[in-house]
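Task 17 of the worksheet. Students: predict the tertiary structure of the chain below and write it out as structure tokens. Keep your answer in the requested format; marks are given for formatting as well as content.
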Amino acid sequence: MLKVVVACGSGVATSETVVANLKTFLDDHHATGIDVQATDFKQLSSVLANYDVYVWLAKPTPEIQDICDREGIPDVNGVDILTGAKGKKVYLPFVNALMRLKDAQ
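Model answer:
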């Protein structure tokens, strides 16, 4: 199972909205085997290595980017997923990250 983490400052409203949007998108496309969870940014550095994809709502700090780079975790901009301003195109980077991971398995 692929594990996706979404993080914002508090891990409540904004990240939970993006989690809901991603789950709906995955359900609409009959994608299975993907777990999407939210966390707050304060604990992200201690849990990030347990995930396969990181969806961010604030640009990753150098520490978080180092973890992503070291662990091979794709980081995806979640701001457009939150706003939906660009329609379904906003999911393309997320889908690409998942496809690269599935191909690598």
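Marker's comment: Helices lie at 13-28, 41-47, 62-71, 79-83, 92-104. The chain has one domain: 2-104.
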